[in-house]
Design brief:
The strands form two sheets. Strands 7-6-5-8-9 form a five-stranded parallel beta sheet, with helices on one face. Strands 2-1-3-4 form a four-stranded parallel beta sheet, with helices on both faces. The chain contains nine helices and nine strands. It is globular and about 55 Å long. By secondary structure, the chain is of the alpha/beta class. It has two domains: about 130 residues, Rossmann fold (3-Layer(aba) Sandwich); about 160 residues, Rossmann fold (3-Layer(aba) Sandwich), CATH 3.40.50.1370. The structure holds phosphoric acid mono(formamide)ester. Phosphoric acid mono(formamide)ester (CP) binds next to α2.
Length: about 300
């Protein structure tokens, strides 16, 4: 029996490095040959209190392609939340209708709370600026697939490193794999101190920069991120930093042959569309990898692999 059976995935710290690798291996086998019908009698609910394209639809695609069923809502406005229903009541009710709950919510800690009260496992699809662990697993999958390893890589993280939840979970996961980090952000959007402390405790090297044009040649992975407009309380502060980094094709000239550009998407302006035709642009394949990885997560938690 998998050690992940019935185990909620709320934070990337919930999984050991061995369990992370186990998910990647299962996802790889699903990419090679998808086990049609694996989720035949299973119902998965998706409760999205915040907008989403990739996470929600890739979960739905993942389940549909394995013969399972999806219930849920894509915005709280379509649910009884508008009548004042609490998160607790919604989660307890939906637990009756499904074998596993996937939840995205703007409040940090909401997925943890849901996992503590729900009688079925809960998967965090993003809680505020905190964590996005299923994105991290697909990011790890994409890194391993393109680099052939997770060990000893030089990872550049660019953009909103303060509010970007995908950055926070990925940083924690990669800290298990002897990674060197280069953080590129404006002063206002630097990686929170708590994350840097974790790296220091593990003896990992990290460097902070406000520009990366001169150093991009050292990168194995450039992980671009969007400035998270929805997390700013002052719109003027957002306006100041929104277009601070734009990756252009000319910047790729002296980069490593095998360097790949990742982005959790959606992008706004931070990757110029001219980059899309470069073989180093990997963000749309990265989004596809989300299907295999989310299938692996669901199948593991439901004890089907
Ligand atoms: N990467 C990601 O979380 O995208 P969505 O917001 O579209 O789900």
């Amino acid at each position: 029996m998998s050690s992940l059976q019935n185990k909620s995935l709320v934070s990337i710290n919930d999984y050991t490095p061995e369990e992370l690798i186990q998910i990647l291996d299962i996802a790889e086998s699903f990419e090679k040959k998808m086990p049609a019908g694996l989720l035949e009698d299973k119902v998965i609910s998706t409760l999205f209190y915040e907008p989403s394209t990739r996470t929600r639809l890739s979960f739905e695609s993942a389940v549909n392609r394995l013969g399972g069923h999806i219930v849920g809502f894509s915005e709280a406005a379509n649910s009884s939340v508008t009548k004042g229903e609490t998160l607790k009541d919604t989660v307890l009710t939906v637990s009756n209708y499904s074998d596993l709950i996937v939840i995205r919510h703007p409040v940090e800690g909401s997925a943890r709370y849901a996992s503590e009260i729900a009688p079925v496992p809960v998967v965090n699809a993003g809680d505020g600026a905190n964590q996005h662990p299923t994105q991290t697993l697909l990011d790890l999958y994409s890194i391993r697939k393109t680099q052939g390893t997770l060990d000893g890589l030089n990872i550049f993280m660019v953009g909103d490193l303060k509010y970007g939840r995908t950055v926070h979970s990925l940083l924690i996961a990669l800290s298990e794999f002897n990674t060197t980090f280069n953080f590129i952000s404006p002063e206002e959007l630097r990686v929170p101190e708590g994350y840097k402390l974790i790296l220091e405790k593990k003896g990992l090297k990290y460097y902070e920069h406000t520009d990366f044009t001169e150093i991009i040649s050292r990168a194995d992975i450039v992980y671009m991120t969007r400035v998270q407009r929805e997390r700013f309380s002052d719109p003027l502060e957002y306006e100041k930093v929104k277009n601070i980094y734009i990756l252009r094709k000319s910047m790729l000239e002296n980069t490593k042959e095998n360097m790949r550009i990742l982005h959790p998407l959606p992008r706004v302006n931070e990757i110029d569309t001219s980059v899309d035709s470069s073989p180093k642009a990997y963000y749309f394949q990265q989004a596809l990898n989300g299907v295999y990885v989310r299938q692996a997560i669901i199948a593991s938690i439901l004890g089907l692999v």
